[in-house]
């Protein structure tokens, strides 16, 4: 097919200190009509890298209150297209995905799409284990990320585990996006330590708020928050990913990935019980 016509999707790439990943990500986005980089005042060379590409750069300074980064863009900035794709700097699209995305948005059957990912850990592709997917492509006029009451306790300025709430039907794009973070294991652990603290506080909020606060959670989210405090949950997760989902076939990297995910859930549980 011809690639001369731009795909009518605005790609939003939220970043903070992503010099290791950003150029590789942006280099693959020239088929899209608009690319917007939203930077949380990076103190590395990320803004200079973004300036080398045909994209709009917005700076975001979070005040600790709603909205965080993704909803801020949706609520406060006019995007060139009705369709928006939220892409992290360590996520890389190819022509197969671009073709699939174009077909999806021109079908007029859905207002949002689940996306699938080819995941890498320690620079090795994970072929087994629990597949990653996100609802990250949708009509900007039909969706926002969950609004979570986190004033005063969250240090994360971007929606990480929040789920977009979409009006209308939701489909799925099978063509995968490559997810490969080149910042190393230490950064992975640091990032998941921050996520764990956020998850523990959100779990406490959900527990105190009752059923109404949980009505928009996905089935996977409901299962997670229902069982986070149970001592066996990290080890059941490890066994499910490593044995039942055949993670052991990825060799030692498959073991390490399953182990660190179990560590992550154990950390969340300890943080919850220590509150």
What do you see in this structure?
The protein is of the alpha/beta class and about 280 residues long. The protein is globular and about 55 Å long. It starts with 6 loop residues before the first strand and ends with a helix. It has eight helices and eleven strands. The longest helix is centred in the C-terminal third of the chain and has 26 residues, at about 185-210. A hairpin with a 2-residue loop joins β6 (about 110-120) and β7 (about 125). α5 packs across α8 (about 250-275) and α7 runs antiparallel to α8. The strands form two sheets. Strands 1, 2, 3, 4, 5, 6, 7, 8 and 11 form a nine-stranded mixed beta sheet that branches. Strands 9-10 form a two-stranded antiparallel sheet.
How would you describe this structure in keywords?
275 residues, alpha/beta, 37% helix, 8 helices, globular, single chain
Mean pLDDT: 93
Count of DSSP helices? Answer: 8
Alpha-carbon distance between the two ends: 56 Å
Shape: globular
- Helices and strands, in order, run as EHEHEHEEHEEEEEEHHHH
Relative strand content: 15-25%
What is the C-alpha radius of gyration, as a whole number of Å?
A: 19 Å
Largest sheet: 9 strands, mixed
Q: Helical residue percent?
A: 25-40%
> How many strands?
11
Q: List low-pLDDT spans.
A: none
């Amino acid at each position: 097919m011809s690639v001369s016509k731009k795909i009518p999707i605005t790609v939003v790439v939220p970043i903070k200190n992503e010099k290791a990943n950003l150029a590789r990500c942006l280099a693959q986005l020239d088929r899209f009509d608009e690319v917007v980089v939203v930077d949380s005042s990076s103190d590395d060379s990320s803004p200079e890298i973004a300036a080398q590409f045909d994209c709009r750069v917005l700076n975001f300074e979070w005040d600790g209150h709603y909205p965080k980064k993704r909803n801020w863009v949706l609520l406060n900035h006019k995007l060139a297209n009705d369709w928006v794709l939220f892409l992290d700097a360590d996520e890389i699209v190819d022509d197969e995905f671009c073709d699939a995305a174009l077909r999806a948005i021109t079908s007029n059957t859905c207002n949002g799409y689940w996306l699938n990912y080819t995941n890498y850990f320690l620079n090795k592709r994970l072929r087994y284990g629990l597949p990653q997917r996100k609802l990250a492509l949708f009509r900007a006029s039909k969706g926002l990320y969950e609004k979570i009451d986190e004033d005063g306790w969250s240090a994360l300025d971007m929606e990480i585990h929040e789920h977009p709430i979409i009006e209308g039907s939701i489909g799925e794009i099978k063509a995968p996006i490559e997810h490969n973070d080149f910042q190393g294991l230490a950064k992975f652990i640091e990032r998941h330590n921050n996520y764990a603290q956020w998850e523990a506080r959100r779990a406490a909020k959900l527990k105190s708020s009752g059923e109404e606060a949980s009505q928009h959670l996905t089935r996977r989210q409901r299962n997670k928050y229902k069982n986070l405090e149970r001592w066996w949950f990290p080890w059941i997760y490890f066994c499910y990913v490593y044995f039942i989902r055949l993670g052991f076939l990825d060799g030692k990297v498959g073991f390490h990935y399953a182990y660190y995910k179990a560590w992550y859930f154990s950390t969340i549980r300890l943080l919850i019980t220590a509150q």
